[in-house]
Amino acid sequence: MPDILVVEDNPDNMTLVKWILEDEGHNTIEAPTGEDCLALLKTKTFDLILMDISLPGIDGKETTRLIRQNSLLKELPIIALTAHAVKGEEEAIWKSGVSDLITKPIAEELLIQRIEFFLNNKDQPPEN
């Protein structure tokens, strides 16, 4: 069963994502902040990260940049989840090093499709 780290500070969003993932048979670990995410990555290996961009403290973009600095984590799939995908912000999110970007509200089918793609291929996301 794949282990997916869900970095999300909103309890309602966390619950929704966990339900979706658990229904698909994935193990989920919660991290409400970027700092918690970075700490967990020092002690555990994950198959994929779902990264909220608007986090307290270190935001999702900076957390992703910090993850990508670790040579062992350069290929770890990171899917950004954000409600703030305006053009300039979207470009900054991509530049942070994410593997894919999904806007909120999250479409369950799209999320499942993208997760399965990265767990099976770990390359480029499918076209929308």
In short:
With 128 residues, the protein is an alpha/beta fold. The protein has helices spanning 11-23, 34-41, 60-68, 87-95, 108-120; strands spanning 3-7, 27-31, 48-52, 78-82, 100-103.
Report on the architecture of this protein.
The protein has 128 residues and is an alpha/beta fold. It has one domain (3-106): Rossmann fold (3-Layer(aba) Sandwich), CATH 3.40.50.2300. It has helices spanning 11-23, 34-41, 60-68, 87-95, 108-120, and strands spanning 3-7, 27-31, 48-52, 78-82, 100-103. The protein has a five-stranded parallel β-sheet, sandwiched between helices. The mean pLDDT is 92.
**CATH-assigned fold name:** Rossmann fold
Give the radius of gyration. Answer: 13 Å
Q: Structural class from helices and strands?
A: alpha/beta
- Can you tell me the residue ranges where pLDDT is under 50 for at least 5 consecutive residues? none
Distinct helical segment count: 5
User: What would you say the CATH architecture is?
Assistant: 3-Layer(aba) Sandwich
Count of individual beta strands: 5
Give the % helix.
40-55%
Spatial ordering of strands, largest sheet: 2-1-3-4-5
